[in-house]
Amino acid sequence: MEKTKEMLEQEEKELNEKAKKMADAIRAELGLEDLKKDIMEKMDARDTKIANDSVLKVFVSEDCEKAVSELTEKEKNQAFAHAVWFGDHNALKGLSETNADGGYTIPQNFYNLLLAEIYEATPMRAEVTIVPMKTNVLQLSMIDHGPNVYWTGEGVAKTTASADFSNPTITAYKMAAIMYLTDELIEDSAFDLVNVLVSRFASAIATEEDKVITNGNGTTQPTGLFVASTVGSSAATGLNFDNIIALIYSLPVKFRKNAKFVINPYQVGQLRLKKDTVGRYLWQDPIAPGQPGTIQGYPVIEDYWAPQDQILFGDLKYAYWLGDRQKMTVKLSNDTETTFVQDKTAIRVVERIGGTVVFPNALRKLTSVH
User: Fold this and answer.
1) How confident is the chain (370 residues) per 10-residue block, as mean pLDDT?
2) Where are the domains of the chain?
3) 97-145+166-370 falls under which CATH superfamily?
4) Containing H/E element for 294?
């Protein structure tokens, strides 16, 4: 009987299975699988050691080098600052994560130092509510009004009511701070590198955050407190005691407990000269060093970015939300024409933030018309 194609294929399959079983039995008898496993484990250990020795060993100072796994939190900050200052990309890779544009995510502990310095350098970030952003746009749903409350008699039809919702949007924008270092400064530096980098960048970033929280344009920057069109506004000819009292009491009582003034220093100078109807100055000096001056008992934030002809009053933390999109990143470059020709290195720190007034009823604005 002539074998069919299917029969031949089945015989071939059975022979292959028998051959495989015989090979497995021989390997098991000789211990080849255990030998192979041992070899692979040793190769993996060798590769890991090579990687650790070549990438994860970093300088914590000019003459001290350690493996990343051995560093304390303080030494990690020193190592990161050293790597940024001297352009050590291998160390930066070992200490942080790379991102799409070739930069490096600033490590959390170093970021915390930078953020603490920013809080010290700016009044406005500490005055508003900070919210994390997982996407570039944060859509919010807020109850503006309602529900309403009614009294009703027994057996009388109840009045229905609904809450009014608004949908403010916070959009994240990119802000970059760049510092140029000369090659000579890098080579000869004896500074505390952590403090130099933190203080320089914190000062620059804090100044810009102050500016946009107060007066950002809302198109390429966060929307500033004075720019938000939803804030209730009134106008007055000049500034006097009556205008200030009217501004305070135009704010709903529930927001007055934590309310503050935001005023340009020029306006502060004008207000310090104003008196009430019995000759008492409106402005009260701080009761202790480091405390703000007050008007009618409410603290005053002096902000150079506030318009000279406007005064803001309200609960800033309730009214304004600042969104942090992601951790700050740092990028190094000496490839641009300026840096190459002038023997400089550019350090570029990027953060992405957004902000807007989400509860406009917690603020009031007064414009002085001359």
Assistant:
1) 67 73 65 61 57 58 74 83 80 76 79 82 87 77 58 61 61 83 60 75 88 92 92 84 90 95 90 82 81 90 92 95 82 60 70 90 86
2) 97-145+166-370
3) phage-related protein like domain (3.90.1690.10)
4) strand 294-295
